[in-house]
Model the fold of this input.
Amino acid sequence: MATTEEIRSGLADIVNEIAGVPAEDVQMDKSFTEDLDIDSLSMVEVVVAAEEKFGVKIPDDEVKNLTTVGDAVAFIERAGS
Amino acid sequence: MTGQIRGPVGSTQAGILGVGAYRPVRVVSNDEICERIDSSDEWIRTRTGITSRRFAGEEETVVSMSVAASEKALAQAGITPDQVGCILIATVTHLYQTPSAAAEVAHKIGATPAAAFDISAACAGFCYGLALASDMVRGGSSRYVLVVGVERLSDITDAFDRSTAFIFADGAGAALVGPSDTPGIGPVVWGSDGSQLDLIRQEESWEDAFRREDGPAWPHLRMEGNPVFRWASYEMAKVAQQALDAAGVTAEDLDVFVPHQANMRITDAMARAMGLPETVAVARDIAEQGNTSAASVPLALERMLETGQAKSGDLALFIGFGAGLVYAAQVARVP
Done:
């Protein structure tokens, strides 16, 4: 099982690849929309890539609750455990 | 048992012999769309890649646009209307339950008594029609089949709906399918998923809208953007790959990729998910045409031919997907 930091770092790589946001900006307290300027369609792409990378399922209904990077990391940790 | 019936005799292979398009005259900017919704040119461009679209005027009907596109496809193919054995019209905006648009178009272009019927397969309509046409030519029911995708989506779009008003548009595209010496249209990969009926739909039936207690209303098209984006980008990338496999080619063999012009972001995500090589020219007609549902694939192909991005003999991959949900994809040679 990946550590919290490994998940954050993996997510940062995904966000970088999809939205061109520098990976070092993707920190736990950052909001996807407010701070990282990820729109709803890019968020769908991030979710699909995260599902593949971490082997978890993130339902559509859940995505709207993932406001910050920390929310997403916590969800992936729970879903993967 | 006496007498034996003669079976139908078709051509060994079928191909696309001509393509034609009709784009409505009136260009509608994002700024004009934003007069009715709280949005901006920049927001629409970044979310959809659409900079402008065409809306049909009163005279630019489903039938008249189909006639214009059909005549161009016939001219390119060098086939006269009387040679056409069947006309298939894919549309969801011919607002008559009956008769079909196809019968009227057949008459207007002088193709009588060609067989004629409409197809309801939403944004997959053209690819559905192409599959049927190919099978008809090979099966012997028609030697030449005219496939038209046509929409006046502005008629069923809610101009005040912030999630769809900027997407949908109008236009027509046609392809003439006939016998070919070599395989010109690969096997279709198609299907439906009615469990996701609600993702893109007319909000209520004409009957319910007409009989509303507070007076007759006009039912509009509604769409759940994010789930559709996900389905279209990822599930359709798999279908596109299946169509390549079915035709026995790889993405590296392709010259052009012509997906339904749903949203530039879907096109980009699908191309990424497919691992499409950069050498493949990708249709981006949506930028100036909007999402024209059944018309988008032939319209996009026509623009690529006009601009030299595609040329005769190129290997193309078509994929259509939309309300139903339904989808269809096939590899074909550009005429």
